[in-house]
Write a structure and sequence with these properties.
Elements: H1 16-30, H2 33-40, E1 47-49, E2 54-56, H3 93-105, E3 111-113, H4 117-127, H5 131-145, E4 147-153, E5 163-168, E6 172-177, E7 180-192, E8 197-205, E9 208-217, E10 220-225, E11 239-241, E12 255-259, H6 285-304, E13 308-310, E14 317-318, E15 325-326, E16 349-351, H7 357-375, H8 392-398, H9 400-430, E17 443-445, H10 454-466, H11 472-479, H12 485-498, H13 512-515
Antiparallel strand pairs: 1-2, 3-17, 4-5, 4-12, 6-7, 7-8, 8-9, 9-10, 9-11, 13-16, 14-15
Helix pairs in contact: 1-2, 3-5, 6-7, 10-11, 11-12
C-alpha cells in the first residue's frame, strides 16, 4: 500500500482513541505541568499541538460543571481564572516508573550469540557501538508509551555499520495482520509556524521503504510536495527496495514493535490497537493526579503557614503620599504613637497556621504504594521499604514483584530484539556487503537482575566441593553464570590441569576396588608380607 496522496486529518481519525491515550501518557512522562494542562484542558484552546504531538482540549463545561467537563474534577483539569497564579506542583512519579523499568530490564547489557564465528565477531562489534544505550532508551520509552519501535538504519557514506534507531509510539501509524506488524508509517514534523506544518512520512513495508513530504496544517496532512523542498529530506529516495528476505525467501520488514505489557485493558476490543502494549502507569493516572494534589496542598500549607503580624493602622509607617505604608518588624527603636493604650487587648496579633506534615506524608506514601502496586513494582525498588536488603537473597525477596514484572517484559522483548538483530545482520550482509557475515537469528540472553556476591558464591562452591556434591563444571557455571558452555568446559579443564595430583581425584583406571572405601592395602592381601 503506497503513502497517502494527501488531505485528511493527521494523525488519522480512526486512531483518535489511541492518539488521545498516548498524549496523556506522554504528558505524564514528560513531567511538564504545561503539557498536563494541555491534555486535561486546564487553560488552553482546542486543536492538535504538533510540537508535543498532543491533542489539546478546552471544555466550556469545565467552568460550570457537567458530564462533559468531568476532567475538571481532576486536579490538572481545574481551570485557572485569568488573574490567578498557578501554584500546582507536579511529582514526576510516572517518569520514575519508566526509568526504573528500563533499569531493571537492562541494568547489564544482554548477550547475543550465533553459530557462525565470523558473524559472532561482527555482532559483538555492532553491539559495542552504543547498542546498550539504545536498548535503555527504548525500554524507558516502552514503559512510558506502552511500546516502542526499533528501526534498522544504514548509510554507507556515514558509516560502514548499520544501527538501530528508536522510534516513539506516538509518532507511528501501525498496521496489523493477526497481531503481527504488517507495515508502519513513522512521521516527524520538520517545519511548523502555527499555520503551515510540513511532515515527513516514512513507510516501512516488507521489502520496501517509502518516503513522502507533505505540506498541511497542524491537524491536517495537506498536499504532497517534492522531497527536495527541504534539506532534511533532500537526499532521500521516494522508494527504497531493500531486498531483505528471510531464510524462507519472505521479504523482511525493516522495523519491529516491542510491546511493554499485554493485554492493554483499554484497547482490548479495538482491532487497530489490540496488539499495542500498555504503559507502566496506564490506569493509575487518577492516583498520579491525586499525588500531585497532595503535594500541592502540602506546599500550600507551608506557604500560608509563614508567621505574620497583624497590627493597627497607627503602627504603620507612611511612605509618602500615594505610596502607602509599611510595618518594619526588624525596627528596634520606635517613636511614641498617638493611640490609646490598652492593658486588656493585644494590639499586635501573630498569625501562625499549622503545617500538617504527617498527614500529607502519610497520604503521599500510601498513594505512591498504590501506584507502585498497580504498576507491578515493589516498594523496595524505589527505596520506600523500611529496611534495606543486604544480601542478594534478601534483595530478591523484597523485590519479588518487580522481578516478576521484569520477567514478563523480557518475554516480550527477547523475540522482537532477536528479530531486530537478525535484520541488522541482514542489512550488514546484503546491503553493506560486509564479508564473513551471515544473516542469522541470534540467541538473546538477559543478565540476572540481582547478582550474587562473589564471596558468597566462592564459599558455596567450596562447601559443595568439600561435600563432593558438584562437579568442577557445575561449580564453574555457578560462579560464572554469564559464561556459555564452551567457556565453562575450558575453565573446568584448566582447573583440573593445574590441580595437584593428590587433589585431581581418581584416575580413569582407578576403581572402587583399589581406591574406594574399605579397600585393603597390599600388606593385608594374601601372598603379601609374611605374618
Amino acid at each position: 500500500m503506497p503513502l497517502p496522496e494527501g488531505g485528511g486529518a493527521w494523525p488519522p481519525e480512526h486512531l483518535a482513541p489511541i492518539t488521545d491515550r498516548l498524549c496523556a501518557w506522554s504528558a505524564w512522562y514528560s513531567g511538564n505541568p504545561d503539557e498536563l494542562e494541555k491534555v486535561y484542558g486546564g487553560a488552553y484552546g482546542s486543536g492538535f499541538d504538533t510540537t508535543s504531538r498532543q491533542r489539546v482540549y478546552d471544555r466550556p463545561s469545565q467552568h460550570r460543571g457537567g458530564v462533559v467537563g468531568r476532567f475538571a474534577r481532576w486536579f490538572w483539569g481545574q481551570p485557572l481564572s485569568s488573574n490567578q497564579q498557578r501554584a500546582k506542583l507536579h511529582v514526576p512519579a510516572a517518569s520514575d516508573l519508566a526509568q526504573a523499568g528500563a533499569d531493571l530490564l537492562f541494568t547489564e547489557p544482554p548477550t547475543f550469540t550465533v553459530k557462525n564465528k565470523g558473524t559472532q565477531a561482527r555482532l559483538e562489534e555492532l553491539a559495542d557501538d552504543g547498542l546498550h544505550a539504545k536498548l535503555l532508551e527504548s525500554a524507558e520509552l516502552s514503559c512510558a508509551l506502552g511500546g516502542v519501535y526499533l528501526r534498522i538504519c544504514w548509510d554507507s557514506e556515514m558509516s560502514d555499520r548499520p544501527w538501530l534507531s528508536v522510534q516513539h509510539a506516538d509518532a507511528a501509524v501501525p498496521e496489523w495482520s493477526w497481531e503481527q506488524l504488517r507495515a508502519v508509517t513513522f512521521w516527524r514534523v520538520i517545519h511548523d509556524d502555527g499555520k503551515k506544518t510540513v511532515r515527513h512520512l516514512e513507510r516501512h513495508e516488507p521489502g520496501f521503504i517509502l518516503n513522502g513530504l507533505y505540506e498541511g496544517t497542524p491537524d491536517g496532512l495537506g498536499k504532497r510536495i517534492d522531497l527536495g523542498a527541504y534539506p532534511e529530506t533532500a537526499g532521500l529516495d521516494p522508494v527504497i527496495e531493500t531486498g531483505l528476505k528471510t531464510s524462507r525467501g519472505k521479504p523482511m520488514l525493516t522495523a519491529v514493535y516491542i510491546p511493554n505489557a499485554r493485554p492493554n485493558r483499554t484497547w482490548r476490543n479495538l482491532p487497530a490497537a489490540a496488539p499495542l502494549g500498555r504503559a507502566d502507569f496506564g490506569g493509575v493516572e487518577p492516583m498520579l493526579d491525586a499525588l500531585d494534589e497532595t503535594y500541592t496542598s502540602w506546599m500550600r500549607d507551608i506557604r500560608i503557614g509563614k508567621g505574620r503580624l497583624i497590627v493597627p493602622d497607627t503602627y504603620l509607617q507612611s511612605l509618602g503620599a500615594g505610596d502607602g505604608a509599611r510595618f518594619d518588624a526588624e525596627r528596634e527603636v520606635w517613636q511614641g504613637l498617638s493611640m490609646l493604650a490598652s492593658k486588656d487587648v493585644n494590639q499586635l496579633t501573630v498569625a501562625q497556621f499549622a503545617i500538617r506534615v504527617q498527614e500529607h506524608r502519610d497520604t503521599a506514601t500510601d498513594l505512591m504504594e498504590q501506584i507502585l502496586r498497580a504498576a507491578g513494582y515493589s516498594a523496595q525498588t524505589f527505596g520506600l521499604a523500611g529496611e534495606v536488603a543486604v544480601t542478594a537473597t534478601e534483595v530478591a525477596a523484597k523485590e519479588r514483584r518487580s522481578l516478576i514484572t521484569r520477567g514478563k517484559k523480557i518475554l516480550n522483548y527477547r523475540p522482537r530484539l532477536a528479530d531486530a538483530l537478525e535484520l541488522l545482520l541482514a542489512v550488514d550482509q546484503r546491503i553493506l556487503q560486509t564479508p564473513g557475515v551471515t544473516a542469522e537469528r541470534p540467541r538473546v540472553e538477559f543478565a540476572d537482575a540481582v547478582s550474587e556476591d562473589m564471596g558468597s558464591l566462592a564459599q558455596t562452591a567450596q562447601l559443595l566441593r568439600a561435600a563432593e556434591a558438584a562437579s568442577t563444571e557445575t561449580l564453574v557455571a555457578m560462579v560464572h553464570p554469564d559464561w556459555d558452555e564452551t567457556q565453562v568446559k575450558a575453565e573446568a579443564r584448566a582447573i583440573k590441569d593445574e590441580a595437584p595430583a593428590e587433589l585431581s581425584g581418581p584416575g580413569p583406571d582407578d576403581g572402587m576396588g583399589s581406591s574406594g572405601p574399605g579397600a585393603s592395602s597390599g600388606e593385608d592381601e594374601p601372598g603379601g608380607a609374611e605374618g
